[in-house]
Amino acid sequence: MKKIVIILLVLVSVTSAFAQKNLNDYKYVIVPYKYDFVNEKDKYQLNSLSQFLFKKYGFEAIMEDAELPIDLAKNRCLGLRSDVLKVKAFLSTKLKVELKDCDGNVVYTTKAGSTKEKDYKVAYTLALRGAFEDFKTVNYKYSPNEAILAKTTEASDETSKDEIQKLKEEITALREKQEEAIEKEEPIKKVEVEKKEPRKVIGQLKKEEPTVDVLYAQKINNGFQLVDKTPKVVMIMLETNLENVFLVKDKNAIVYKEDGFWYISKNDGNKPSIKTLNIKF
Description:
The chain folds into 2 domains: about 20-145, Double Stranded RNA Binding Domain, CATH 3.30.160; about 160-175 and about 215-280, no CATH class. Helix content is about 30%, strand content about 25%. The protein has helices at about 1-25, 45-55, 70-75, 120-130, 145-185; strands at about 30, 60-65, 80-85, 95-100, 105-110, 115, 215-220, 225, 235-240, 245-250, 255-260, 260-265, 270-280.
């Protein structure tokens, strides 16, 4: 009996050490703003609570809709994506926390926190706190893994290059279509108009050219944020490996400079478009 107890203790120790080693390889935990078992963003403040509890146990936790640190933006595999799963149970509420790497592999799963509380908000809160109890014994501390750093940085760079190349090809194709449309247009017929003497007016009218609203560029960690005169953040431009070419955060678009002017090229999946921007740095 003693031998069985010793073997079980050894297995538990080895499992805990292995989990800790894996978790220590990752610098960040990304917390989603909504879990699948509820129908609203941060329902019952469960996502905010998750971020708080991760930080409590030593993790650097970031909400997925927040601005990412430079190293994480360039290398998503530095972070683990967290999720909270609801476990089917009779007359009780059970939740467990799951952590996955950038390839979707499960790195760590907690035991289920459980409660028989009837009120949903109280039940989900208690069950989530119960699941996080597992992290007490993990003793997490980030320790850079060179293999992960090398692999993911390379993958991230290749992804950025592919996205930029794809968008540049779309810009070229759009311009070619515009040129073809211009060539097909019929020349405008000249119409003879009777010349009349201009009427005298008091003062002189000033002709106003249409202008593009000015956007002011403010430097951030991994690029610039553009704000209008309100000031309101209109978009966030993320740096790329190309000079004067930026990816637009959360949009299928790039901002680039050509012939002294700034442009934004968008593709909503149906029709690409190009628009001039008036950016002041």
